[in-house]
Amino acid sequence: MRESNRTLHIATYNIHKGLSFFNQRVVLHELRDYLRSLNVDIIFLQEVIGEHTLHASRFQDWPKDAQYEFLADAVWSDFAYGKNAVYNHGHHGNAILSRFPISSWENEDISAHRFESRGLLHCELAIPGWKDALHCICVHLGLFKRGRYRQLEAIERRIRQLVPPDAPLVLAGDFNDWRGVANQALASRLNLVEVFQYTQGKAARSFPSVLPLLRLDRIYIRGFQVKNARIFHNRPWSRISDHAALSAQIMRK
Question: What predicted TM-score, i.e. pTM, was given to this entire model?
Fold first, then answer.
């Protein structure tokens, strides 16, 4: 397999529901432009609105399509959306946008309690020239320590049951894990590598985006080597979301 066929460029981003701080304006159009500028193959997105009738009536520039469709546009030909939080005027969750065909997907409810609706979006991608499917899992874990432990257990259980040990795997998203518990659990028990832990010795500081202090967002891989990893914060990214965007170039072993 040629190196060009073995290399993937991926990113993860909590998009803050496509709204600026305090929900004063829609930033989806800027967000789409900046996501395109990353030139990545696969994007793992959190806090993506599938529908919101109040925002649609309030903002003139609110897109007619769901946010994941609007962001994918003509660049990422396939996408999957996992509806997690459902309310009277709409719903939001996680999404994966891909330049490659998504052959199957499933959204698993991993909510730890009724106050936070959380999901695990698991896709299988068909990469040209690869004999095995690429497994991609997008997550947004809860704010409470006990709930995150249960959610990490759910992630581990799903990977052990549904991802073959020799299959390529990317697990990315907002882990809300400022104590680094996920790093220890996922690396030690599932043989996963966090890309910034590998390249810089620690997970990336990603929150708040204007001056990142907390290491909340992660990209874990299995079956790949890390070529490079980047953090996108400060302006213009800090005008779009309170999280920094993370990207990595990875090569199939």
Answer: 0.96
